[in-house]
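Q: For a teaching session next week I want to show students how multiple molecules come together into a single three-dimensional assembly. I've collected the sequence lines for a complex. Could you give me the predicted structure tokens for the whole thing so I can convert them for display?
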Amino acid sequence: MAVGKKEISCPPSAEGTGLSDADISQKNVTYFEDHPNLAYSWTAGQAMSRFLNELKNGKLIATKCEKCRRVIFPPRIYCELCYKPIDDWVYIKDTGVVQTFSISFIDPDAKPLEKPVIVAVITIDGASPNMGIMHIIDEVEPEKVYIGMRVKAVWRPESERKGTITDIKYWKPLEG
Amino acid sequence: MPAVVGVGYYGFNTNTPDMSWKEIMYEAAVRAYEDAGIDPRRDVDSFVTCAEDFYEGFAIFDEFVPDQLGAVVKPTCTVCADFLYGLATAYMQIESGLADIAVVEAHSKASDMKTFGEIIRHAMDPIWLKGVTRAHPYYFAALEMSYYMNKYCISEEAIAEVVVKNKGNAILNESAPYGAKLTVESVLNSPFVFYPMRKIEIAERADGAIVFVVARDEIARKITDSPVWIKGIGWWSETSSYDTRSFEALYAYKAGKMAYKMAGIEVPVKEIDIAEIDDRFAFKELQHIVALQLAGKFEVCELMREGYFSRNGSLPVNVSGGNLGVGNLLEATGAQKSLEVVLQLRREAGRRQIDCELGVAQCWRYIPTASGAVAVFGV
Ligand SMILES: [Zn+2]
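A: Of course. Below is the structure for the complete assembly, covering every listed component.
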């Protein structure tokens, strides 16, 4: 017997029935609530520090492995395939090609978003294949986005850049 | 029997502002592979990492592992526990025939955590323990200490001796950031933070990464002239109910028994030459020495005072400086213990080298647990 089972019905087609706000607020379920203050500040390290600081300059930087000849992006201090230190730093362009995309309609709490978000993986011009960035696309109707679409970064004004991944506001279709 | 054929480490530091956790893992791994003379892309069959997601600050840590270890498109898994549990996993993978060469990694990037007390507090039973108080959860260790001191007449002086010994040993360890020359009087005159515990009895956190390369018997003999055999390994947990535990490190006693039995050790105190023991709170060293059958429960204080466990004593404990000298390395604690034993057995411990052929490494899973693991290494 399920101890404490309340009048909760579940239609056979449903994938699951979550607790409602009322179930919690009216104490229909017995619970203990806590909001822990778990805070971190992750040291970016050699590779990502350089990358983040270059964002402030409006530039994307990658590393290069002379053995496999790959231009590695995002940069790291080792080539994970050859397992050796990288040989050089190289700037790559802030344009690229949509490799895959999705249109998201809800937030992590399953609440509808005011405006759908177009999430995409973009292969950057100048980086090796499969070396891309996961970011968002805007200034385009969701139904007009396609795999293979050429896009360009839209940067925050220099004074507003903080050396974070959102120094790029979004990517927009590249005309022509 | 599997053997350790390569070790590498990066650290240990109070902070590592110039390197990310991925990068310190890479630095340790490169050194371990060089030490073993292997290419991880070609030679390693399995990679085991040890991490607790809340210490890292993000979920599903195993996802973040392969690149920096040379494990891309290779068998990889993460054990949510101390390094010694990962070593046990590698041991089993090798003994079962799944792998000839396995790699075990553990690290601490403690400096990335801004609210360590809250993160530890987050390990408490949410219904039963968490809501009682918001005091810093180190009181868990102080509660156990209070019980232990009263039951076995443990003196404040003996606990102070542990601090003096370990921080003193750390002075000879270039990788230990918390070495200090202290006296028992200076320790006893220092302030309490969780009565009966003084601040100086609590290991400060440190950053670092450690990687071991472990190989099957015949392969170990082929690739190195100085294999260090994993003669026994054990792990044990008491109960998750904090209030019904032994408060006497039963987990260490049982894990020790498991490892000793595997190693064919009948009288540990006569056979073990060196011990690296979890001392993240100074009293824990005394408690763990007894649990590992390296001293009687009523004689441990006297032996500590006599210098029996000193670097030049009959049974050196925490020659590396222990956690009090090296720092609290979180899930890499057992790794640092094992590293010291391996370096000592290989006669590569430099100025702190002692004469030894059989050593034991032990870790506890820290507050609020009553779990831990033990490994016996020999040459
Ligand atoms: Zn390469």
